[in-house]
Each structure stands twice: as C-alpha cells, then as structure tokens.
C-alpha cells in the first residue's frame, strides 16, 4: 500500500511537507514547483488522497513546560539563557512559542497539548510527569535532565564530566581536602508537587570522585541562591570541621555568597583556599579575585532543543536523539591549575 513516505521519497521532500501540502497548511512556505512535484508523485504512485490515514493536524508551534518561575528565570543567568535561546531559535525557524507552562500550576488545567507540534520540557520534571505528557503529544524534547529513561529526545550540558575534570585538577595540584557547596534538585511531579532530593548531577559526580580516590567527602547543599552560598559557608566557618583547601561550588550565584562569607572571615580566595564554579556569568570575571568557572552555552543548548523539536514536527525521524553539549573551564585567579 502506497503511503505518504513513498510520495515524499518520489517527490524528494520530507513526509511532513507532503502532509502539510495535502492539508493546505497556510503556514507552509514551499514553491509552486515543489507542490507540483508532490502532486505528480501522487499521480505516478496512484496514491489515494481521500483514503489516506487521517492524521490530526499539529500546529507548527512549540509548548514549553518548565519547573522554573518567570522571576527565577530572570534571576538565574543559566535559566534565563535557556529561555532566550528557545525564543531566538523558534523565531529563526518560524515556529510559534507562545505557550509556556510552569509545573507549579495545576496540570489538570492544561489543554490542547495534542494540537501543538512539540513540547520542550525544561528542568527536573519527574519521569511519570513526562510519561503523562507523552500521552497527549509524542513529540517531546527534555532539556537539562539526563536522568529520564524514556524514548524522548534529550539535550543537556556535560555537568558530570566537567565536575570530575575540575576535581581532578584540584587533585593534581595537591589538594586532598576538597569540599563542595551546591544546591538540591527540585523535582516536580505530575501533580505539581515539589520533591527535594540530593540526586543532583554535580553533587553525584563529586561523591563518585571522592570515593574513587579514597578522600573524605565535605559537602553542603541548599537552594540555588547567593544568600544560600553565604549561609552554607558561614555554617562551615562556625563549625569545628576543618575547612577544605579547595572548594567546588555548583553555580556562580552560589559562589557570590561563598566569596562574601570567606572575605568576612579574612580568608583569601586563591591563596588559602582555591575556588572553582559553574556558569561563567558576567559577574564571575569581576569578583575579587576573579572566579575560575565552567562556561556552559545555555543558549546553544536551548537552540538545539528547538531544532530537535522541529525535526519531530516535520516527521523527519522517529528515533530519539540524545545530545550532550561540551563545556570548558575558564581559568582566572581563584584557582589556577598546575601546569
């Protein structure tokens, strides 16, 4: 039996293009010659348009489901970069991106996900929530959550690899008391409920590295906010626990608070304690001393997610794709690795 894919191969176009031409999609931009090739292929293959399998029309648009509030997106450079990347790439590819849902809203009020071309999920959404959403729309791209074990597209930064890389550089410089300050993972389920867990990518990699090298773990976790960085470091300084000689911090905003605490205690960063972090936000270069940090291309990660969503919308592939984006260490004064 002749199908749309057969017509697409004969006409030299994607199956999605054939479907949209047959459905008179007003948003489709193809030349008259392309349309003529499609209809010529239909004629040559004797494809019965009237008896073709009905496929519910999907709009060329993307819905975004995020665990992060709009205010937190504005406050957190990483999540703000993700949002900017999503919006820029959607505009470039002429895709609608006007439905953004926060998982703290009641999921029962969500409607019409089946009419969207695809859904991009940002943040740590529970696997059961992703499974529930896939019943409405199979075209799902998960951004920034590599722990989902479902047949969906995924895009994320190589946090775990770079965590171990920085820790190895600490080790090579002679550090054996290596500490970690980071944030907990806030997973949100299909009911919009928050689940706080220590199963976070950077912390997980820190624990594995310390165990592999027979080193004592010294770690503190809180929320991903500058004031939390100060609070956690203040607690460390007030305790009788011996301070680490090197400290890895999960994000630059947390590092701002850590810096303030250490400076208040007259502890010199880069001399008495080496510090490295993640994000490479603008302020990192202007801290005193300037902060060594891992640069993560949040905007490029988000743009890749939009491109994967477009491939799904246009039915260019059926197999899921997993993309890991590399990052790089930007060396400044707070920690200079051994040469």
UniProtKB/TrEMBL annotation:
It comes from the Bacteria. GO terms for molecular function: DNA-binding transcription factor activity; transcription cis-regulatory region binding. Keywords: DNA-binding, Transcription, Transcription regulation. The keyword Transcription regulation applies. It holds the Pfam family LacI. Residues 2-61 form the HTH lacI-type domain. PANTHER family: HTH-TYPE TRANSCRIPTIONAL REGULATOR EBGR (PTHR30146:SF149), LACI-RELATED TRANSCRIPTIONAL REPRESSOR (PTHR30146). This is HTH lacI-type domain-containing protein.
